[in-house]
Design brief:
With about 60 residues, the chain is of the alpha+beta class. About 20% of the residues lie in helices and about 20% in strands. A four-stranded antiparallel β-sheet has the order 1-2-3-4. A hairpin with an 8-residue loop joins strand 3 and strand 4. The protein is flat, with a radius of gyration of 12 Å. It holds the Pfam family DUF397.
Length: about 60
């Protein structure tokens, strides 16, 4: 998506590629992609759905 500013997820580690990137700077959407396969596809969430996903991931898999 044009204008997306990608950042590595704070939940991604330095484990050789098991990382995702998130772009949450576009109005009304949050984009997610695999760091090691950036052209392999992008998931698109509404901001509310993304917040729900992140909240659930935090409670399901605490650090």
């Amino acid at each position: 998506m044009t204008g997306a500013r990608w950042r590595k997820s704070t939940r991604s580690g330095n484990n050789g590629g098991a990382c995702v990137e998130v772009a949450d700077n576009l109005p009304g959407i949050v984009l997610v992609r695999d760091t090691k396969d950036r052209d392999g596809g992008t998931l698109m969430f509404t901001p509310g759905a993304w917040r729900g996903f992140v909240d659930r991931a935090k409670t399901s898999h605490p650090r």
